[in-house]
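Section 4.2 – Deliverable D4.2 (structural model, holo form)

The reporting period included a commitment to supply a predicted holo structure for the target in complex with nicotinamide-adenine-dinucleotide. Inputs used:
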Amino acid sequence: MKSYKIAILAGDGIGPEIMEEAVKVLKLVEERNDVQFELMPAAFGANAYFECGDAFPEETKAICDQADAILKGPIGLSHEESKKIPIDKQPERGALLPMRRRYNTYANFRPVSLPKGLAHFSPLKPEVIGEGIDLIMVRELVGGLYFGEKEVGVNDKGLRYVKETLEYDEEQIRRILVEAFKLAMRRKKVLHNIHKSNVLKSSVLWNEIAEEVAKDYPEVEVKHILVDAAATLLCLNPGQFDVMVMENMFGDILSDQGGGILGSLGLMPSACQGDEKSYYEPSHGSAPDIAGKNIANPYSMIGSVAMMLENSFGMEAEAKNVWDAMQGVFTDGYSTADLSKPGSGVRMINTTEFGEKVLEKLRKAPKVA
Ligand code: NAD
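Output (structure tokens):
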């Protein structure tokens, strides 16, 4: 029997609520398959900071170091609550970026997917959606502006100033592009390279490397597109995209727009892969506005489990069962509160009910040989 250690970082806000449902799914997967999961919960984020003064405590690092994969809930506080934590210790700067750096998880895969049967959740018109939305954003996750040197001070004129550096070397750019080309080869062999080379020198280098890497993948058609134009076209014609690759900050912003065209960030899971270790997390934040109400959509967290099963444990068929179970709940006419308005003809369910319905469906799914 295969055995895997999984670090469970429930996080802040809605994190513990949606993680609870994800863990139930993991336990059912364990029952249904010849596999054992050792779940190792650990504090991470604002909750960890308030407990011990560190958003990414040493104990959590040790647990994550041992783990075969990390399942992470969203972290962070509301704008006002964040002020209770010194800037450099706040969850993103104090935990999230250090984790990405520690495990060098440079490749972030963010599926933006809405089968035709769920198209009613999207704010886009049916004629724009066509056969549904099915694209994946590949975001560079450990470089660029978010990781560059920062300087804050007062300049010669006595004015407060800030300087942040966007830095990439060719190796960092090449490795993420290679991941994107490999993914394009497994999908439709079309790659949209998102850049801003009309303004940013970093994009000029990015595009040069893209052209070099493209020579190794002659079957992939590469389409270069400015990030601002990509934002518009995601709304006007998402069907033209399949694999989109981009640097860190562009990916942060465009992928939230991806959640927008689906109807909710609650439909956005993700995989953050390094050469040695990967972690899996919803693309969204801790949603402080709805935390503690049992109304968050756990699709993003359970979808992150499905991505972990497939990418870290090679359990493709069971991962597909998990996706099908989640989508099946929606096609049965149910909806979580983020996706529909009351009175829109759907049956509203809360976080726990969604989780239970996924389990019911998964119990009935064909067992994987
Ligand atoms: P957010 O992503 O938490 O929420 C944006 C909107 O989407 C809110 O209206 C929220 O209710 C809704 N939403 C998000 N996930 C949902 C779900 N699963 N079900 C239903 N609705 C959902 O963004 P924010 O409010 O700007 O940020 C809150 C905190 O999260 C901040 O501290 C931010 O820094 C942090 N954050 C963390 C991560 C991460 O852990 N990787 C990512 C993004 C933001």
